[in-house]
Amino acid sequence: NKLSNEAPSYYMWRILDQGREPLREKLAELAGCDPNEIAINRNATEALNTVIYGLDLAKGDEVIGTKQDYPNMIQAWRQREMREGIKYTQLNFEFPIEDDDTIVKTFEKAITPRTKLLHITHVINWVGQIMPVQKLARMARAKGIEVLVDGAHSFGLMDFKIPDLECDYFGTSLHKFLSAPIGSGMLWIRKEKIEKIWPLLCNDKPRSTDIRKFETLGTRSFPIEQAIGEAINFHNGIGAKRKEERIRYLKNYWASRAREIPGVRIHTSLKSAYSCAICGVSIDGMTIAELDSALFNKYKIHCTGIVWENIKVVRITPHVYTSIRDVQKLVKALTEIAGTRKKT
Questions:
Q1: Half-sphere exposure of residue 308, counting CA atoms within 13 Å on the CB side?
Q2: Cα 299 to Cα 251, 292, 294, 326, distances in angstroms
Q3: Quick one: 329 and 196 in the same domain?
Q4: Which CATH number characterizes residue 329's domain?
Q5: 133 touches 155 (CB < 8 A)
Q6: If 0-12 CB within 10 Å is exposed, 13-18 middle and 19+ buried, where does residue 35 land?
Q7: How many Cβ atoms from other residues are within 10 Å of residue 247's Cβ?
Q8: N or C: which end of the chain has fewer CB within 10 A?
Q9: Using one digit for the tens of pLDDT, what is the confidence trace for 259-317?
Q10: For every residue of the chain, which 3-state class applies, written as one string?
Q11: CB–CB of 258/269 below 8 Å?
């Protein structure tokens, strides 16, 4: 950063910018796709908004998502609805759900002749539900409908390749489970779809088939971008499958014990097909804010209180650096807090 700030026209464009293509190849190898389908950007919001605002949709065309999607994506679709008159339909799910067909059939029943796209969150960030993306994509494709996937909480956590999801568009942040620096993200677009998507930020060839048209960000932090490569090295050193299994083990370790505590409720499936890292917990007789505060103030356990639509949980998310001792401390804390709750 110091070098870039002192002489940006030299260090940024002649030195650091030369690392972008090798990084693109490295990300493509991790994602299991062609490098020319990968655009490097700053986060999942930017990646997904590129597609949300870049699709040509006419008044009355319909997009189907859920009330449990990420707020930034919901607001983006609502803005298109307000400005252009598209129809944005949100389904409402009661998670956890341990049956793919239930989810697929709910989406299928909502489809109309004007439906153009399904917006699918791969891992629901509130409670960690894994959505059956491939099955949804196959159902949608048979009806001529495209699929956009929010992979913010799946990429770098779960062992999969993006093309295997059979979707059309995929956006993710890289600072989450891949552990790249904050301010790093990635957009994948199926090669034959690139031409039709307008860039979110202006480009001189907006109808180009070159994925790089989505990278016209102007001056940006090259050190952040180049550090993505080291995060991939770290990830590959552990191994994608081994990493997924370890993090799921940590989640199941604490959650399977916590659900045996009187008054404690677990709001996430413990089956491997339906969850991995994220898990929601609550305690009868306590508000989410009270539980969140008790965990942090007394036990210094940082987590996230969630009150969103029909979801009211404290979200617990271990990572590879989380130890067994850490999750044991969590179980002990939940046991003690539940023992002092107001019984109803």
A1: 21
A2: 19, 10, 7, 11
A3: no
A4: 3.90.1150.10
A5: no
A6: middle
A7: 21
A8: C
A9: 999 999 999 999 999 999 999 999 999 999 999 999 999 999 999 999 999 999 999 99
A10: CHHHHHCHHHHHHHHHHHHHHHHHHHHHHHHCCCHHHEEEECCHHHHHHHHHHHCCCCCCCEEEEECCCCHHHHHHHHHHHHHHCCEEEEECCCCCCCCHHHHHHHHHHHCCCCEEEEEEECECCCCCCECCHHHHHHHHHHCCCEEEEECCCCCCCCCCCHHHHCCCEEEEECCCCCCCCCCCEEEEECHHHHHHCCCCCCCCCCCCCCHHHHHCCCCCCHHHHHHHHHHHHHHHHHCHHHHHHHHHHHHHHHHHHHCCCCCEEECCCCCCCCCCCCEEEEECCCCHHHHHHHHHHHHCCCCEEEEECCEEEEEECCCCCCCHHHHHHHHHHHHHHHHCCCCC
A11: no
Place of tokens 């917990």: 281
Residue 179 shares a structural domain with residue 287: no
Same domain, 212 and 311: no
Q: How far apart are CA 52 and CA 14, in angstroms?
A: 33
Name residue 221's amino acid.
S
Contact call for residues 315 and 308 (beta carbons, < 8 A): no
Q: Give the whole-angstrom CA distance, residue 98 versus residue 273.
A: 8
Q: How many residues does the chain have?
A: 344
pTM summary value: 0.95
Tokens 């464009």, located at residue: 13
Q: What is the tens place of the pLDDT at every residue in 169-216?
A: 999 999 999 999 999 999 999 999 999 999 999 999 999 999 999 999
69 and 156 co-located in one domain: yes
Tell me how far apart the alpha carbons of residues 250 and 320 are, in angstroms, rounded to a whole number. Answer: 9
Residue 18's pLDDT band (boundaries 50, 70, 90)?
Answer: confident
Choosing from 212, 237, 262, the residue where a domain stops is 237
Domain that holds residue 296: 240-338
Domain contains 6:
yes
